[in-house]
Write a structure and sequence with these properties.
Oligomer: single chain
Number of domains: 2
Distance between the termini: 63 Å
Shape: elongated
Strand order of the largest sheet: 1-2-3-4-5
Helix content: 40-55%
Order of helices and strands: HHEEEHEEHHHHHHH
Number of helices: 10
Largest sheet: 5 strands, mixed
Length: 323
Amino acid sequence: MATDDTGYKLLFSHPEMVRDLITGFVPGEWVGEADFSTLTPEKSSFVSDSEKERHDDLVWRVRLRDRWLWVYLLLEFQSTPDPWMAVRVMVYVGLLAQDLIRRQQTQDGRLPPILPIVLYNGAPAWTAAMDVADCFVPPPKGLHSFQPRLMYHLVDEARLAVHPDDPVRNLSDALFRLEHSRRPVDIRRVLQALDGLLRDEAHQSLRRAFSVWVRRLLRRKVPESHIREVDGITDFMEADSMLAETIEGWFEEAKREGLEKGLQQGLQQGLQQGLEQGRQEATAEAKRRTARNLLAMGVLSDDQVAAATELPRDEIRRLRDEM
């Protein structure tokens, strides 16, 4: 069910989205000390010794009083959780740390704090270890202090405690609700909230990014015959009654098409099963007819007739009794 991660990257390239992700879904007293007006995107492609690069993640920094906090945002859109995510995060944080050292982004000879966040939108619940120490076999006594420790913060969208009727809290909350909405009324409610949140002229770039993402979302949910209509809408947050009724109509038609397709598949499957059952019944009747002929000859025993026709011995006895 994963949405095109390019759309997510476009959305989370806006500081408002990163701010709302942190304030809405990351715990800690430090959040109240962060100056989110200082949120700054940073280079997110780090070259390791093997010349391999990371282009899939987003890195931001935000001011915490007299120091910077680096936020490493990893977008995870695999169909199932990666059991080695903690190891991957350890590697990525290491590459970021090396890059900060190269660029002399240190304070008093030490690295700044780094917060790794994994944003996961898959259907199965996240079961992977969130501390890299849990990816290793328990070490022998005396070696625990030598094992690596690094945790990441997980935002598991599908498991967030959000009720569809609750007010939309912020922009990231709106995104997660849209991703997992099942009813047109829920989508319309979120679009109406976004319309209010993104009316300011300064938010027009993010408003356009949301429209691009909603278009991709609806293209997966509406009938193919209405794709052009979806593509023709430039601003999905203009949630007037006409758009609301249109979305409702698209979903109803998609539902009908799904039911019709399912019915056709069911009929076809039923027909195939019926033909197979008919063939099996015809074969069984032919065997019983052969058994009656052999019994009528009065030469073979019940066991011999059963072996010859591959019918159960009890059925051979029943056929003999009927004669």
